[in-house]
Write a structure and sequence with these properties.
single chain; 229 residues; mainly alpha; 8 helices
């Protein structure tokens, strides 16, 4: 474990040393998140610019790109937090939005469902390790609950004829599965491909977040939504 907030961390194939630009592709491709947030912001403005929940997701997406850039340049203990916290905020924020807006749950029920998902997500890596010891998927195991949630909520939406949102979630899950694959093989293919494949995780994840933000922007909100009794 690092003993200092500034202790260098070498987690990815592309990193060749402790220098700021030792992961150039991994660093630069974080611009995809910023571009996705800019495009989503334009969509949000075109849709009326009143949906504060969607605007929150847009802001968090931009911060995801900034935080990941910091991690892939400074690559130390404090920048890990700058990387993982915004991602977690987006995942949990979107889950709550989906519970409330897509599945039309009451606030109390939506919050309880989100809280249970957070608890499950926090315990998942430990549970996975107890069943599949040594199988870490290059550190990607922690993202499996998010992938499962996308397909599960998307399927429920489709079964309830919430077709646009359900289709978007299932599509996002398909792209996310591909991005997880590239994240998982980064270390394994390092000898043959020194730049690794982690940069593809950034590009594809930016697309995932854009698909999700577009769905949120296009979905009814506020007094247009009718929560289930």
């Amino acid at each position: 474990m690092p003993t200092s907030w500034t202790t260098p961390i070498d987690n990815y194939c592309e990193r060749i040393g402790p220098g700021f630009w030792s992961e150039p592709l991994n660093a630069v491709t974080n611009a995809a998140f910023v571009l996705a947030s800019v495009y989503a912001f334009l969509l949000w403005r075109s849709a009326g610019g009143r949906d504060r929940a969607a605007l929150w997701l847009i802001c968090v997406t931009a911060i995801v790109g900034i935080g990941s850039f910091l991690f892939h340049t400074f690559a130390n203990r404090w920048s890990v937090l700058a990387d993982v916290i915004p991602i977690a905020v987006f995942i949990y924020s979107y889950f709550l939005l989906a519970m409330r807006r897509y599945l039309q749950l009451r606030w109390a029920t939506a919050l309880v469902a989100t809280g249970l998902f957070v608890l499950f997500n926090m315990q998942f890596v430990r549970l996975w390790g107890s069943v599949f010891p040594g199988l870490t998927l290059n550190g990607s195991v922690g993202y499996l609950p998010a992938a499962a949630a996308l397909v599960a909520v998307g399927t429920i939406c489709l079964s309830r004829h919430v077709r646009k949102e359900g289709t978007a979630l299932v599509l996002a899950d398909g792209v996310f599965a591909v991005s997880l694959f590239f994240r998982s093989i980064d270390a394994a293919i390092c000898a043959g491909l020194p730049v690794g494949t982690h940069f593809l995780w950034h590009v594809l994840n930016a697309l995932v977040l854009l698909i999700l933000m577009r769905a949120a922007i296009a979905s009814p909100f506020g007094d247009r939504a009718q929560p289930a009794k």
